[in-house]
Amino acid sequence: MLDLFRASLLVILLVSVEARTRRSIDLIAAHSLISDTRLPREVTPNFYDLQLEPRPNEGTFEGRVRINVTWQEPTDKITLHAHEDLDIFKIIVTQFAPDDETEKASSTPLPPTEVRVMRIERVPKKPLYIIHLEKTANRGTQCIVDLTFKGNISNDTSEGIFRSSYVDPETKNRKWFVATHLRPNLARKVFPCFDEPAYKVPFVITVARQKNMVALSNMPLKNSEQMKEKSDWVWDQFQQTPPISTFSVGIVVSEFSNTDYNTTDEDNNWNYEIRVWARPDFITALANVTDKIRKSVKILEEFWGCPYPLPKLDVLALPNYQATRPADNWGLLLFKESELSGRGSWHISQELTYQWLGSLATPFWWSDAHINNALVRYVTAYTTLKMETNESFNNWPMTMLYSIYYEFSKRYPHGKSTAIKQDSTSAKTELVFRMLNYTLGERTFKHGLQKFMADRQYKTFFGDDIWNALTEQAKFDNTLNESTVNAIAASWITKDRLPVVNVTRNYKEKSAKISQRVYLRERPHDVPDKEKFVWWIPVILIRQDSLNFSNTKPIVWMKKEKEITLENLPEANQFIIVNPEEIGPFPVNYDVQNWNMLAQFLCSENRAKIPVNTRAKLLHDAWNLAYAGDLSFATALNMTLFLKNEREYLAWDPVFTLIDHIGRHIDSSAVHKKFQTYVRLLLTPLYEELGEEPQEGESEGKAHLRSSSKVFLCQAGYKPCIEEAQAAFRKWMESENPDEGNPVSNQYICPVFKWGTSEEWEFGLQRVIKFPANRKQNERTYLLKTLAGCPNEAEKIERLLNITILEQNGNFTDNDIYLIFSMLTGSANGYTTLFNFLKKNWDTIKERFEGKLHLWNSLITSATTVFKTQEGLDMVSELYVERQTEFGTADFVIEKALKNIKEETKWSNDNLPVIEKWLDEYLANNSK
């Protein structure tokens, strides 16, 4: 065994962990979801020899790991990661190379000598395992740390080393399989190790299995040996891996079947093998997966400028796989069955992208994981679009971009959720990569990333390594002279904000002032230091007299300037478009004349000369700027007129979100009924043209458009939809045993409770009360949500509140009541009824909720904070004066509510008359 470790020293100089001290643009270091104790850098690994013996039937495993380590600093201890549940019961430390000074003084090799272990220390509440040695070893000392361990295989989660099972349809026998999912820092659950991404070293992995099973790991099988102790077991040893991080290690032991696909590239003189694995009766569902993999790998090889880095790729569909995302072990990908058998290719492309970015080149620490994740997402999108699978992903990046617009325009982005912050920041960084691809040019962008990959393959990287590579390439190609990519990127990704660009044209001078400021959608706009925010913004301009959307080079960059002036613009009767195709992640506002010219052009037969993503952008920008108070709603609503003839689902995609946002904001006013009529007139021709039933071979986009149209028509009271829903619901009402199951599709339940009869709603209420304990409780939860959140009539809501709060019906828990309060905030009818119920029954409710402060605070929040008109402000103010000393722990809630309602009332006073006037004119011209 020592010979194997000595041989490994030949590559140590190439793969040793880099003690790098530079910092990248650090987004999430202070907020990372991964809270981990850094290992001291006194001793570092060079090589692992890992043996694992999983026993799937018993749910346990044993193992042995021999780690070749080198002392970087004098110390008498070795610190490793090891989970507290991992039982390490044998430790041997053998020194086989002297320290630097001894080696210089001696001409003869040092014989292997065992180093005495004095004691073992487990650090409380930390996954640290410290081996204290008899004496201090100096810099350059090399040892083998030999540890034998055992543990339990997880049944409850798909993390660490876990097992699951399925039933063989032929024999009816239960079949177990074992797999590992070690990302991000779960290798310590399986074996003692240096469980940090920066420690990239080779592994030799050996796995025990029964003869009727197959073992897989990161590399191809090297040899198999009969196990001496058990005649029906064998040891499978796999080829040595390239330098990898511990989270990239993977094994699977199963009785799966496989379909293989060999691919070769004679020009580049390399080849690799693809195998797709699944339980035998599911393998036919994966017939097209190898073709998707082959296509995706080919695109990724072209993108990165280097071949797939391993000799094989095993892809598995795991039954009962519970992880939230696939496991991207290097050379061994684990998916849920539904993810791998689905029509799309997004999941496959994403995990294949991690084979390069994450495994081949690895973030040095988790503070750089955000940039790794963002670039993976961008490259996945690039690959998926190149695959041309016609899946719904074709709306990228608009849907993602709209959601981060909403998040970053809040007064307090992310709230207190670190997870939301991490995801939205990563999404924004992904869009920065997309912006750089357009503004630097695809050739420069790809060559820069290829340069980065060539430099950092088999190594680790910081975020700055990516920006520096792009900067060097841009300077070489002369596509960026103003600054560095580092500075441009930093101006975007270090702020929890996005800009809005205002374009005000001087039609006589053929010029325009372009200014930037913080985009704030949520009121009030009293964000601290908002005047100090500035970005590097690319100004990409499209003119009506030259509708060339292929030229994405900026005519100028706003170099963190508040305002610049553009000259030589077109004539006064021609529009301009800034930031076409949403190249940069920012909305754009224009003067009213330019907006009106755009609206008129979109209503003409020339509409298609503006690409669909830009049509969607113009519509989305106009509505959201109006919502934020930066544009008249009359102008924004004019931008919807072209939808009468629009049939591209991408252009419609933002409409449904906007209908929902505006509808919720105005549903307490008389204008809401007119708005619902407008929605019916807008969507009915589209829905009738699409037809009620899907057509064979239609795109996912068309199906999505039909589904969304139907949902919003139902909400707006479209009669055929209500009748269809009631007919479906009637079958449930007429069934002999309605509590045995719900035969009604979820899409029908809310329309029935909203527009149907009291009898239908009461039937739903009884189903919740009598819901059997042996049925899935999420079905009951959905039914309760719709009972509370959908009705138009106050009587239905009052009955629900009477039963749950005043009568204290035992079939409803505190969690049910909390859920009801939450659902009632979704409509003016809901929260107004709740407010009146609270006011009428104040003393009784106060008594009921004594000792249940979370319910009391939730009630006050739901009943008072959502009003948006002067009438609502008066109601809440009156209650506050009347009960001022009785709010208790909810006192801060009511005070905050009054402040917010004042803002919303101002919005309503400013905008409702404008919306109503526009709707009156529209309905007068379009009513049949």
TrEMBL record:
The alphabetical list of record keywords is: Aminopeptidase, Glycoprotein, GPI-anchor, Hydrolase, Lipoprotein, Membrane, Metal-binding, Metalloprotease, Protease, Signal, Zinc
Family listed:
Belongs to the peptidase M1 family.
Q: What is this protein called?
A: Aminopeptidase
Membrane protein topology class: Lipid-anchor; GPI-anchor
Q: What is its main location?
A: membrane
One term of GO molecular function: zinc ion binding
Which species is this record about?
Answer: Tribolium castaneum (Red flour beetle)
The record places the active site at 351 (proton acceptor)
Q: Quote the cellular component terms of the Gene Ontology held in the record.
A: extracellular space; plasma membrane; side of membrane
